[in-house]
Amino acid sequence: MEHRLVVCAPSGVPTPLKQKSGHNVRLAHRQIARVPNSGEGGKKVSPKDLRAASQEPEYSNRSASFASVTLNPDFNFWVRVRCKPIPESASPARTAKKLLRKKKNESGANGSAASSPLETGGFEVQKSRSLFFLVSFLATSICYAQQSSPTPVPDSEPIVITGTRIDIPLDQSPASISVVTSQDFEEKQIERVADALREVPGLSVVQSGTAGQLTSVFTRGLRSEHTQVLLDGIPINQGLAGLMNFADFTTDDIDRVEVVRGPQSTLYGPRALAGAIQIFTKRGDGDPTFMFSAEGGSYGTFREVFESEGKIGQLDYSLGLSRVDTDNARPNNQYRLTNAIADIGWSPDTTLRIGSLITYSLADTGNPNTIFDPKPLDNFLTERWLIGPHIDWQPVEWWDHHLIVSYDHERQLNDPNQDGFVGPTRALFERTQVDYQNDLRPTSWLTITSGFFYSRLNAGQERPFILQDFGPQPRFVSDHTEETGVFAQLILMPCENLIFVSGGRFDHFNQFGDVWTWREAASYLIRQTDTTLHASVATGFSPPSSQDKIFGMNFGLEPERDLGWDAGIEQRLWNKRVILGATYFHNDLSNVIGFNGLFDTLNLGKARTQGIECELRARPLDELDLVATYTYLDAEKIGSADISQLPGARLPRRPRHEAYVSASYLWCKKLRTTLSAKWVNAREELNFGGPNFDIEDYSFVNFAAEYEISPHLSVFGRIDNLTNEHYAEVFGFPALGRAAYGGVKLRF
Q1: What CA–CA distance (Å, rounded) separates 719 from 727?
Q2: 64, 303, 531, 546: which is deepest, by most CB within 10 A?
Q3: How many CB atoms lie within 10 A of CB 48?
């Protein structure tokens, strides 16, 4: 049996109890019901009294009582109190029962009910005015307090994964992490992931000339093969060199990119010595949507893109297709790229998703070589594809399972190749990977993440035309590597805003044995000032690549190792409209692969990198977004056994100063304009065996604009290298001059 107490405002018109334009306030522990007693104020009935009478716990579903208040701007509200029937022996209930019986008799005598309802079964009685004025005062106070807030409630804090392999709020991450979203891609008209990474502090993006050429990313001054790149949790560093060539990686169907700086080998194994970059595809949700864009511009450039995402019943999908054709500026510098990416999933219920990631790309690239030794005929044809079935299962609320089984394949044909020595070649790379992770939450303050990893890699190169003038040279070279690893991580939250992370990993390789790595990290969020302090120390490793082993003819090479630590602060101001961050980092690299005096490939080198990363993100107006990042880097070779550089030399192509700024403004809710600039200073180039030589500083400015004609149609345009800067990120490989592009975009 349920009793409901309904109180109406002076308007006297009963309305349903539901939230409309007002606020909803739940008073779960301090509600008071006054039952009229012969015209007097009545007896107070509190949850404590009800609990004592019923002899049931306060939070029991059957005995819990609550009041729900709906506040509207005109303060016309209703209050409803629900409680379990109380035994007749309880004094307050007995009094109420007598009163109800009396009211019933009076109603029968007069032929009408009470003027304002108190409903219990078939009866309604009016609540006293005293409760009305009490709740009215409370409602007025709450409403006034909410209306007096000068700023809107901020959006929920973004969630990141890569720093811990589990969901964690960005403002509590113990890792040094940055996020670039698909909104950034659209506002700045970014077409390749490498260009999106140019704004991230601590990263240096180096492109060997124009679009389609080798594009590398250096994290905190370490080599490109020292950064593990993942796509939806799948490692995708490829090729004989073990690095990630970002030249052909477009932003099609990409939702966001998370960049974690500092050794991450404990979580992601080999290649994560300097950090990890994880790229997430979009997840289809809601009705299917479609987007088509076409553009053209300088240097004979044409680009077409099609994207679609959505959910149909239990099936979700996202799809991206694109085609790029450009001639670039120099002879034999053409670039043709066909790209496809899709993520498909089936979710029979909220606890299980079975899906697969599928990617394919075909790139046809002319390689003009340096301006000092141009090649009129040199072409690379590179085909890559990947399939990655995965299962995400949560059998109970406190236990998650994630399984990924992936296979990727790369085929590269270098024909014609007029290098005068190797000639035309054909290379093949294939890899099978299994990654299992389970997250166990035995208590609210502890999460245990563990799992295993397996990788089988085959790489080879066929060189049928290699010259034999310098002695016998192999016409076919190959490498087979197997890896098995297990890892575990503890995330402890001893108090609400304090997080400790401790992890370890063991990897076994078929060629060079075992590797142990560990990581400790912590963060503390000061709620009163919205300040986050974070720090970490960890070890990392990077195994020798197939290229190191094959061309150095040394299959006994050991992994390169790193001990790195960092400490930083992030301050959020003005209701998170302004975010400031700064981090100091230090890396000690050992076992670096290099050359001795006989040009043997050995573990000889040592290096040290240290510096400061700064970041500012601000939204002073709803229409204006500002970004500024700066990196100071000291990267030095400290070993003497490696003859490629003199001791104390600066590591090549690592700028000492690097800064990025951008401003984006939405005019009249129709026109979006974005201006961005990059400045790079104090670089040196390798002079094998001799002192490094300085290479030019450079800066460039890009401008982009998009105008929305209707919700389904927009036109856009951009100018890259607005000031027509003549520069080269790699010495001898000039970048493009000023270039203009324009196009149209359809959405439906």
Answers
A1: 17
A2: 546
A3: 11
Contacts of residue 603, Cβ cutoff 8 Å, sequence gap at least 6:
557, 558, 560, 591, 592, 593, 594
- pTM comes to 0.79
Question: If DSSP codes are grouped into helix, strand and coil, which group holds residue 225?
Answer: helix
Distance separating alpha carbons of residues 87 and 48, to the nearest angstrom: 15
Buried b (16+ CB within 10 A) or exposed e, 53-67: bbeeeeeeeebbbeb
Q: Which helix (H) or strand (E) holds 121?
A: none
Q: If you count them, how many residues does the chain have?
A: 748
Q: In this structure, are residues 179 and 171 in contact, taking their beta carbons and an 8 Å threshold?
A: no
Q: Are strands 234-235 and 476-495 parallel, antiparallel or unpaired?
A: unpaired
Please check whether residue 433 is in contact with residue 234, taking contact to mean a CB–CB distance below 8 angstroms: yes
The number of beta carbons lying within 10 Å of the beta carbon of residue 443 is 9
Would you call 723 helix, strand, or coil by DSSP? Answer: coil
Distance CA 156, CA 463 (A): 56
CA pair distance 506, 517, nearest whole angstrom: 7
The one-character DSSP state at 262 is S
Structure tokens at 211: 């679009």
Cα dihedral 216, 218, 224, 225, rounded to 10, equals -150
Q: How confident is the model at residue 234 (pLDDT cuts 50, 70, 90)?
A: very high
Return the residue matching tokens 């190959």.
478
pLDDT at 589: 94
- Provide CB contacts within 8 A for 332, sequence distance 6+: 366, 367, 368, 374, 375, 376, 377, 378, 379
pLDDT score of 630 more than 80: yes
Angle of CA points 125, 127, 131, to nearest 5°:
170
